[in-house]
Amino acid sequence: MLLVDAPLVARREVARGMFVLTLEASGVAETVRAGQFVNLGWSPGPLLRRPFSVYKADGERIEVILKAVGGGTSQMLQMKPGEMISCLGPLGRGFDLTSGPRTVALVSGGLGVAPMPLAARDARAAGMQVTWVHGARSADELCSEADGDEVILATDDGSKGFAGTAVNAVPDADLVLACGPNRMLAAVAMRWPDAQVAVETYMGCGTGVCLGCAVPLVRGGYDRACKEGPVYRAADIEWSMLPSHLPYAISA
Fold it and tell me: Per the CB 3.0–4.6 Å rule, which of 35, 39, 186, 235 could disulfide with 239?
């Protein structure tokens, strides 16, 4: 884990209201694994840092993806190239992509696209065939960047690609990795109990101290998403105790 001052290098829009920020953070970029995250802070900014899954890394730079959903993310999107962001990371436990499975399906919904480019990179390095299934409510909310031997797009309104949810569009695969809204991940758990899911949750410190990112477990008790997660076996999480566990349409 490193704490570095990372200058903002660039910003680009990859879907309606969804932006990628590029940061110069070589120490973090060299060691980050798929599914891990960074905690970012800036001045003047919110009291608490904000956690972001690392979207891409190239040895010198990292990228994070975000929407303006509150005051903090709105501030970030107003920053100019050259401004400094305090970057703590890499943090958390990422996807397990040790060799074994021959095929992997990456399943993302909305901002759940965040860890998938690194997952595609690491899966290929482990010799896997990669299928990426990305879903959103409509075509203009689909991330325009995707990386896979096969890419499947899905929209709830049928405006592009598969008409329906990303979960319903997933082909057979030896391993399923998923990130997205809790209700989507709960649907993944029903269909693929052994899937690895990256949980999106509020965090405070990002280092396991504040206990603000508790994840309820089926066996009882709680884990800390920032330390024991954010990646879990799908069936190990008690999804009914997490917010946004409303029904998510999956076919039989």
Answer: 186
CATH 2.30.30.520: does it fit domain 2-91? no
Give residue for tokens 């995250």: 37
Per the listing, tokens 């696209």 go with 113
pLDDT in tens, 162-183: 999 999 999 999 999 999 999 9
27: Cβ–Cβ under 8 A, 6 or more apart, which residues? 2, 4
Asked whether 18 and 67 are in contact (CB, 8 A), the reply is: yes
The Cα 201–Cα 199 span in angstroms is 6
Closest alpha carbon to 40 in 56, 60, 25: 25
Buried-state track 228-238, b at ≥16 Cβ within 10 A, e below 16: bbbbbebeebb
Reported pTM:
0.93
Give dist(CA 147, CA 137) in Å, integer. 20
- Closest by Cα among 17, 114, 32 to 6: 32
